[in-house]
Amino acid sequence: MKKFNTQDRLIQRFRVVFLLTAMVVLAACSSVKFAYNQGDTLLYWFVDAYVDLDSEQAPVVKQDIGQLIKWHRKTQLRDYSQFLVKAQGQLAGTMTHADLKADYKDIKGRTETLAYKALPELTDLALSVKPEQIANIEEKFRKNNDTYRKKFVAIDNDKKQKVRYKKSMEQFELWFGSFSSEQEAVLRKASDARPLDNQIWLDERIIRQKKIVSVLHEIQSKKLGKEATSALLNGLLKDIFGRFDAPERKAFFDAYIDSTINQTLTAIKIATPAQKAHAQKRMQGWIDDFKVLAAETK
User: d(Cα 174, Cα 168) in Å, to the nearest integer?
Assistant: First the structure.
């Protein structure tokens, strides 16, 4: 684990943190158990495609991912199960904006828990970064940004709205099943009411990427020790998680989060008893999966 190159591991860790959280908290998959049990392989493929791991790195990355998932399985999944039990109760009662806002904060907190868990290993990795690896990550970021720009920025607003609405409907249909055309019209209106500025999302990606690269350069050029490197990476994580509260972005992000919560609340309010039963069944399936996964040892 200690030998894995910094650039590779930084990418792995940041991506694994968010991919794991998405997979096991809001998984867009019919079976969380299946997705979770395949998580180590899927994440390894992702990392390998991103950094082209060499023969020395490959087994270490596999071990690293396996250990992270093992820790997550042992310490986090029962909590996720309890979170969904609470959500079932909320859905059966009268869900409020405050309820959903609290749930959003809970999920964000779980993401941060995963990220900070990785900090000690990130520190060891950041002490061995190579110049060519920093160049690799910068090039990968550039290509990803070009793709994002073409798909989500360099299109007209009508298409942006349509793409965003379609993405949100995939999530709603995962939870509630199919919607009628009348319901879809209501949800489209709620989706379109959200602030729309994909350039801001791209700008934030670029800001985050530049800070990651800057940290790598600073650690390497100043030959920082372990304590200083850990402090620098801790600050990087805090900055990444705190961007929604950055003065120049706070108003936009606050409005976006609130309007997205309103859209979700709209979906809940217009859901039929059958659709809510579908959501309850979906959550119960995930609860059961989490319990089984937490009890397994691998």
Answer: 10
In the structure, what pLDDT confidence band is assigned to residue 15 with cuts at 50, 70 and 90?
A: very low
Distance separating alpha carbons of residues 156 and 159, to the nearest angstrom: 6
- Report yes or no on 1 lying in a domain: no
Q: Is the pLDDT of residue 2 over 60?
A: no
Distances from the Cα of 93 to the Cαs of 89, 105, 198, 276, 280, in angstroms? 6, 20, 35, 11, 12
The residue type of 239 is: D
Distance CA 78, CA 80 (A): 5
CA 205 to chain CA centroid, nearest Å: 13
Reported pTM:
0.80
Q: Rounded to whole angstroms, how far apart are CA atoms 33 and 38?
A: 9
pLDDT at 298: 58
At 119, which amino acid appears?
Answer: L
Structurally, the chain folds into a number of domains equal to 1
Convert the pLDDT of each residue in 68-116 to its tens digit. 788 888 888 888 889 999 999 999 988 899 999 998 888 888 888 877 8
Name the DSSP class of 243.
G
Backbone angles phi, psi at 274, to 5 degrees: -65, -40
Q: Residue 287 sits in which domain range?
A: 6-295
